[in-house]
């Protein structure tokens, strides 16, 4: 069924297809019985899939990565498609349109995408308001936060503070995004000194709350081993809960397209199958180098159950889908969960 839907969607501009899909999912969920039917088709519950991590109980380890439900419009509906958790955002304090269109491109020869969306979103207040109406409390919700494009890096902490305070009561965990390649200068915040300062400030706010919430850091796949060592040290110093590895890459290696075709697309983050190997390498490095000191959520190039298992065996504690979900459909979630049980991955 999804192959038919995908063939239709792939005739459309990627961003238009995204909005069409959201409208379709929203419409279907207004039909009585559809939510239950989708749960029956795509859901797969098993006690061995349940995992408790940083104080949260995940019904299964497969989550929806940030970037799909930027404005927290379909988190309830995505929960019905089998996801164990949904990460909304990236949100910013003020609404912003993002970069100029076109800004999303398919590379079907490589099951990949290039995007330079630029944190287009309606602002953190709009997302927070929608999150007040969560229906499915068994699905964990994460809040991915970033800074506005016009905010200089020296004032970035203020943006993250605003996001943190606005979302605190309506999400279960936070993700600090300083690794998107589509906001000018953002990746400079991954350097050790500014990143440590940012995370320490968020932890100050966190510990001032009656009940603190997990804070994770999303990192780029383009970091060197030395920079990954810095990340390990930063996690230790700031005592955040863990890392999401990885965001999109600025690399264009191994693509089955000419240099001219790639240059025509232009700047942006590459996701999908070309990222599979590198994201797994980063997961393994973080886990081995830190002596398994903190949880790592694995994301990047998961297009099959085998890809997912490889990341889990590399040390990932949870998984996230984005491009694989677009190319393979919601059936991939169930396939991964069934394979985890069949191979007794979570013993």
List the domain count as a whole number.
1
What's the shape?
globular
The Cα radius of gyration reads 19 Å
Q: What is the third-level CATH name, the topology? A: TIM Barrel
User: Helical proportion?
Assistant: 25-40%
Number of helices: 13
| Average pLDDT number | 96
How would you spell out the order of helices and strands? HHHEEEHEEEHEHEHEHEHEHEHEHH
CATH architecture: Alpha-Beta Barrel
Proportion of β residues?
15-25%
Give the class-level CATH name.
Alpha Beta
**Major β-sheet annotation:** 8 strands, parallel, barrel
> Runs with pLDDT <50, length 5+?
none
Task: Let me know the number of strands.
Answer: 13
Written description of the protein model:
The protein is an alpha/beta fold and 347 residues long. The protein has a single domain, classed as TIM Barrel. 39% of the residues lie in helices and 16% in strands. It contains 13 helices and 13 strands. The strands form three sheets. An eight-stranded parallel β-barrel has the order 3-4-7-8-9-10-12-13, surrounded by five helices. Strands 5-6-11 form a three-stranded antiparallel sheet. Strands 1-2 form a two-stranded antiparallel sheet. β5 and β6 (112-115) form a beta hairpin. α5 packs parallel to α6 and α10 (276-289) packs parallel to α11 (305-314). 44% of the residues are buried.
Brief account:
The chain is of the alpha/beta class and 347 residues long. 39% of the residues lie in helices and 16% in strands.
């Amino acid at each position: 069924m999804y192959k038919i839907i995908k063939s239709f969607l792939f005739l459309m501009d990627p961003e238009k297809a995204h909005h069409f899909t959201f409208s379709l999912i929203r419409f279907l969920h207004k039909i009585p019985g559809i939510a239950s039917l989708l749960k029956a088709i795509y859901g797969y519950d098993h006690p061995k899939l349940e995992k408790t991590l940083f104080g949260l109980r995940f019904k299964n380890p497969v989550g929806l990565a940030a970037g799909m439900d930027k404005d927290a419009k379909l988190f309830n509906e995505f929960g019905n498609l089998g996801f164990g958790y949904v990460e909304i955002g990236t949100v910013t304090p003020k609404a912003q349109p993002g970069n100029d269109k076109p800004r999303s491109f398919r590379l079907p020869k490589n099951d990949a995408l290039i995007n330079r969306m630029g944190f287009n979103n309606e602002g953190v207040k709009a997302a927070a308001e929608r999150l007040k109406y969560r229906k499915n409390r068994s699905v964990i919700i994460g809040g991915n936060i970033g800074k506005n494009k016009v905010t200089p890096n020296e004032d970035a902490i203020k943006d993250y503070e605003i996001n943190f305070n606005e979302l605190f009561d309506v999400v279960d965990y936070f993700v600090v995004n300083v690794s998107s390649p589509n906001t000018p200068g953002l990746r400079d915040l991954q350097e050790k000194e500014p990143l440590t300062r940012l995370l320490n400030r968020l932890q100050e706010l966190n510990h001032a709350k009656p009940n603190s919430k997990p804070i994770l850091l999303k990192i780029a796949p383009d970091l060197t081993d030395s920079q990954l060592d810095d990340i390990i040290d930063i996690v230790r110093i700031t005592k955040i809960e863990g890392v999401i590895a990885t965001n999109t890459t600025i690399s264009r290696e191994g693509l089955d397209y000419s240099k001219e075709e790639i240059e025509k697309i232009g700047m942006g983050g590459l996701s999908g199958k070309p990222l599979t190997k590198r994201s797994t390498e980063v997961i393994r490095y973080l886990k081995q180098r830190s002596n398994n000191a903190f949880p790592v959520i694995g994301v990047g190039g998961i297009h099959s159950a085998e890809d997912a298992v490889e990341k889990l065996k590399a040390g990932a504690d949870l998984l996230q889908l984005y491009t694989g979900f677009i190319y393979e459909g919601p059936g991939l979630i169930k396939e991964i969960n069934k394979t985890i049980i069949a191979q007794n991955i979570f013993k």
